[in-house]
Design goal:
- This protein is of the alpha+beta class.
- The protein contains 4 helices and 6 strands.
């Protein structure tokens, strides 16, 4: 191995150790913000269709967490998320969100958002109930797509 090759290999290793490799591979700020906003749109699409593929929008790890606004509404990992969404889809009403404000921040392959708006519950007879809703979420870049790591919703008093 030549001196230049050793230098380049050592530099690459140092960059990875210092975490620079992830930043170099991370998308641009605008691209990341767009990706996180698209994840929020996909959430609504899956909810409206009652589509369990929604679980695939979350990181496939045991410590991925959803904390909803109702008492006991906590789901961990893919199995917990699947049970949570199946129970939600088994109801006669449909839940979607209407966001009026969304703020996204990104740091390398991690992003977070804060959204303010309404949880919209649509009954079978077309009756619609709107409740103030607040959401914070943490995302991780996973194979080029922003996946939910934490979903934390609340209904402000």
């Amino acid at each position: 191995m030549g001196a230049v090759t050793r230098f380049l290999a050592g530099s690459a290793a140092l960059a990875l150790v210092l975490g620079l490799g992830q930043r170099a591979a991370a998308p641009s700020q605008k691209g990341a913000e767009r990706g996180v906003r698209q994840a929020l749109i996909r959430l609504n699409q899956h909810l409206a269709k009652r589509d369990l593929a929604l679980v695939d929008e979350f990181m496939p790890d045991h410590d991925t967490l959803l904390v909803g606004s109702e008492l006991g509404e906590v789901a961990r990992g893919p199995d917990g998320l699947r049970r949570h969404f199946q129970a939600l889809f088994d109801r006669t009403d449909t839940l979607v969100f209407d966001w009026r404000e969304v703020e996204v921040s990104v740091h390398g392959p991690i992003a977070w958002l804060h959204a303010e708006g309404h949880a919209v519950v649509r009954e079978a007879g077309a009756t619609e109930h709107r409740r103030a809703y607040r959401l914070t979420g943490v995302f991780a870049l996973h194979h080029g797509q922003w996946k939910w790591r934490l979903f934390h919703g609340s209904e402000p008093a």
